[in-house]
TrEMBL record:
UniProt-recorded Gene Ontology molecular function terms: (2E,6E)-farnesyl diphosphate synthase activity; dimethylallyltranstransferase activity; geranylgeranyl diphosphate synthase activity; metal ion binding
Pfam families reported in the protein's UniProt record: polyprenyl_synt
Presence of the UniProt keyword Ribosomal protein in the record: no
Highest rank taxon of the organism: Bacteria
Record protein name field: Geranylgeranyl diphosphate synthase type I
Cofactor section: Mg(2+)
EC number: 2.5.1.1, 2.5.1.10, 2.5.1.29
Species: Demequina lutea
Keywords noted in UniProt: Magnesium, Metal-binding, Transferase
Family label: Belongs to the FPP/GGPP synthase family.
Enzyme class: transferase
GO biological process annotation, one example: isoprenoid biosynthetic process
């Protein structure tokens, strides 16, 4: 039986985690509790980013399938690190339907009766767990490129480094934006879009598509064309995430509905709702930022009544169409293009 790309990537991630465990074993033994929540988180997910990487590599004429698979595993581990750190930054309780890593480690401290503050221990442990995921990511990338010709290896390494750098900077931009006065919400559209491109599109769509093409030996201009397709796709992906963050099912998303509002995240949805709301509804939106469940529910109602969700759906459709149209400008087999279009549309229409 032939395994699907997500299954193959999942196996590659598992092998990478085995290598990570062996690396720390001489100092910490084979049962380092820090690795358990990391491994659980890494075992889940839809492997969308790695699928894009492998698909662009194939569509661009690449033949380094085993190398692409291992780089895809590195990408998945980078995402694991980003998610762990993001949950710390947002103080999120849940991730993919399970307690977030810092909550798991906090619980370990509490149940074990260790000295010190359990919450601080959980935060510190999660930061280190994310760092370990980054170390594993680096190890997989270096290992994958060891036998690749220097020019191609350098191009892939450069694209991966750029992706990681831009994503990390985007995390801070998101953090800084959330600290701005709420009264500026209606004027923050461009700043929010910049965060979406940097924090999400960089490692969800732009980076994976570019890395796959670079590994196939494409010219810098050709790789740039692949990256350009990823920008509107990444915005559509984040917009869908934002819609799900407001009205999505917790059973599907693994996070409570309205969680983005509670965390005070600046999104295009919140900006749109704020710009069209009257004074009373604006107050409801403001109260939801960091508020309780009742305040969040009232704000969700404002977003639905104001047409914000409908406006977001229209933007998702527009950005997805721009991305799929961009594929027409790249030379590839029609079957590969059709498969990519199907994946693009699925990413923009997902329910989780």
């Amino acid at each position: 039986m032939q395994h699907t790309t997500p299954e193959r990537v999942g196996s590659a991630v598992g092998e990478a985690l085995k290598r990570l465990t062996q690396s720390v074993a001489p100092m910490a033994g084979l049962n380092l509790d820090l690795l358990e929540p990391l491994s659980v988180l890494a075992s889940k997910g839809k492997r969308l980013r790695s699928t894009l990487l492998i698909m662009s590599h194939t569509a661009a004429g690449g033949v380094r399938e085993d190398v692409a698979l291992r780089i895809a595993a590195a990408l998945e581990l980078f995402q694991v690190a980003a998610l762990i750190h993001d949950d710390v930054l947002d103080d999120s309780d849940m991730r993919r339907g399970l307690p977030s890593t810092h909550r798991v480690i906090e619980g370990l401290h509490l149940e074990s009766g260790w000295r010190g503050d359990s919450a601080r221990f959980g935060t510190s442990g999660a930061i280190l767990a994310g760092d370990l995921a980054l170390m594993a990511c680096m190890g997989e990338l270096v290992g994958a490129l060891a036998g690749v010709e220097a020019k191609v290896a350098a191009a892939v390494g450069d694209r991966f480094t750029t992706m990681a750098t831009v994503c990390t900077a985007g995390q801070y931009l998101d953090l800084r934006l959330a600290a701005q006065p709420v009264e500026l919400l209606a004027e923050e559209r461009e700043a929010i879009l910049a965060v979406m491109r940097a924090k999400t599109a960089s490692y969800t769509t732009v980076g994976p598509l570019a890395i796959g093409a670079a590994l196939a030996g494409c010219t810098p201009e050709q790789v740039d064309a692949w990256a350009a397709v990823g920008v509107p796709l990444g915005v559509a992906f984040q917009l869908r995430d934002d819609v799900l963050g407001v009205i999505g099912s917790e059973a599907e998303t693994g996070k409570p509905a309205g969680d983005d509002l509670r965390e005070g995240k600046r999104t295009l949805l919140l900006g749109h709702a704020f710009s069209v709301a009257d004074a009373q509804d604006r107050e409801r939106l403001v109260n939801a930022l960091g508020g309780d469940a009742k305040s969040v529910a009232l704000a969700v109602d404002v977003m639905v009544r104001s047409g914000t969700i409908d406006a977001a759906e229209a933007e998702i459709s527009r950005h997805t169409s721009e991305a799929t149209s961009g594929l027409e400008e790249i030379t590839m087999d029609p079957d590969d293009r059709a498969q990519l279009v199907a994946v693009f549309e699925a990413m923009a229409a997902r329910a989780s």
